[in-house]
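Homework help board

Subject: predicted structure for assignment chain

Our instructor gave us this sequence and asked us to write out the predicted structure in token form, then describe one feature. I got the tokens but I'm not sure how to describe them. Can anyone check?
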Amino acid sequence: MKSVEGIILKKSPRREADAVFTLYTKEHGLMELVAKGVRKGSAKLKSGLDVFNHAEIFYAPAKHWSIITDFKIKNNFKNIKQNLFRLKLTHFASVAILKIFEPGLAEPRVWQKVLDFFTGLENSQSNKEELIGSTYFWCHDILVLNGLNPRSPDFSPINTVDLKKKTEELFLHHFGISISKLI
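My token output:
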């Protein structure tokens, strides 16, 4: 039995009653785990394996798919899930993470940025414009953590407007993601 700490980014149906959960984890970066029978009404795992939950997941390694056996919720991000705009920003972050990072590459600084982004959205009292600004700054940090030198000619924003514009251009160029269309 092994465990990982992660945020559930995606849930995909598999077979009749199973589901594949994609997490960004502290220990392994992106990883996929299967929950057997989780889509049945009586499944014990059903209550806590929800998209955008921060949890400790216990699993049994297997040949093809490791199998989730239990979980412990650390934060269900209730405030995010009750606010459509925050949910939209969280969905954007999830799409970006899934597109940018490859499975199995753990990076503690990225994990901390991801966790801080979700926690910040959960606890923030900011208005929509401030949350959008925070999202662009998070995107900037993700670019820097992926090796883009912020002092390079491609990326030398002077102010918030420039930062948004340059970050938008680079996300579109490198990852095919239009930040403004998703948020």
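Reply (TA_rk): Your tokens look well-formed. For the description, you could write something like this. The chain is about 40% helix and 25% strand. That's the kind of observation they're looking for.
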